[in-house]
Amino acid sequence: MNRTAHSNGLLAELAGQLSHYARLMRLDRPIGIWLLLWPTLWALWISSSGTPDPWVFTVFVLGAVVMRSAGCVINDFADRKLDKQVGRTRERPLVVGTVAPVEALVLFVALCLLALGLVMTLDRLTQLLALGAIALTVIYPFCKRFFAAPQLVLGAAFAWAVPMAFAAHTGAVPRLAWLLSLAVVVWAVAYDTMYAMADRADDLKAGIRSTAILFGQADVFVVAILQGLFLFALLLAGEVAGLGMWYRLSLLVSALFMLYQYALIRRRNPDDCMRAFLNNRHVGATVFVGIALSYIFDVSI
Questions:
Q1: pTM for this one?
Q2: In a domain, 4, yes or no
Q3: Residue 271, SS3?
Q4: Exposure of 206 by Cβ count < 10 A (0-12 exposed, 13-18 middle, 19+ buried)?
Q5: Which of 292, 285, 288, 294 is nearest to 243 (CA)?
Q6: Close Cβ partners of 234 (under 8 Å, ≥ 6 residues apart)
Q7: Per the domain annotation, does 124 fall within a domain?
């Protein structure tokens, strides 16, 4: 009886620790997975003309989940002392001590090895590009200490799956891939500025740098400009890729979502800024639907 109770206690303790690891990987908050996954899916569909290879699709979807989780782990490891000073992050596992720093590092390495294991099943060019993705994942958290616009590095990390997808399907990285990547970088700077606007007061006290601080009172205006550039870059990418009516319609709907986001952030209320940030998952989904429908119906008008 005592042995059974002891076993049950160990299982309960293990389950509790796994839940702390899941929180560290932010699996309970999948918004980052969606913001990484949607551009990946755009690139997979465009690079394959609407028929992605099943295994390439599987690798990239799993890779998006794994690398976003790895990014959260190394971010929280780097920020474990700063997070104590920001109201929204004071309860993170590394701050409250439910996960030790060494455990976080081991988890990060394990996730990176898992991602590399997945990409090793693809071609050599994609494998080489994957090293860049890991480098950007490691660099980003530390940029907030010395670089005024760390969102640019975050954007590059989130966009890096685009050239990888083209490489996996075509064996090359054409100009279209870089144009689409540029659009993703601009989009990421826009939506992560909204995210940073929610934390601006705490970030200023903690000495954390962000585009919300860099842009100052021009933040809302700059975000609107960035969103316009994002839509324009997507429009150009669609023309190069030969996407038609459905795709252009999706950009129109995305523009409406962005007008809604503008209405939310213009008063700079932290809760509304966070709602605007979260709304970007709908933008990503809408663009993907437009791409998919363009290939399904092949209407080039």
A1: 0.92
A2: no
A3: helix
A4: middle
A5: 294
A6: 180, 183, 251, 254, 287
A7: yes
Which residue in 28, 7, 297, 46 sits closest to 168, CA to CA? 46
Cα 84 from Cα 79, distance rounded (Å): 9
DSSP code of residue 86: S
Residue 10 in any domain: the answer is no
Distance from chain centroid for Cα 285 = 13
220 lies in some domain: yes
Q: What's at 138, amino acid-wise? A: V
Instruction: Yes or no: say if 64 and 37 are a contact pair by the CB < 8 Å rule.
Output: yes
Distance CA 254, CA 259 (A): 9
Per residue in 245-285, pLDDT (tens digit) is 999 999 999 999 999 999 999 999 999 999 999 999 999 99
Contact present, 61 and 179 (Cβ < 8 Å): no
> For the chain, how many structural domains are there in total?
1
Cα gap 168→48, rounded to integer Å: 10
Element (H, E) at 43: helix 31-47
* CATH code for position 196: 1.10.357.140
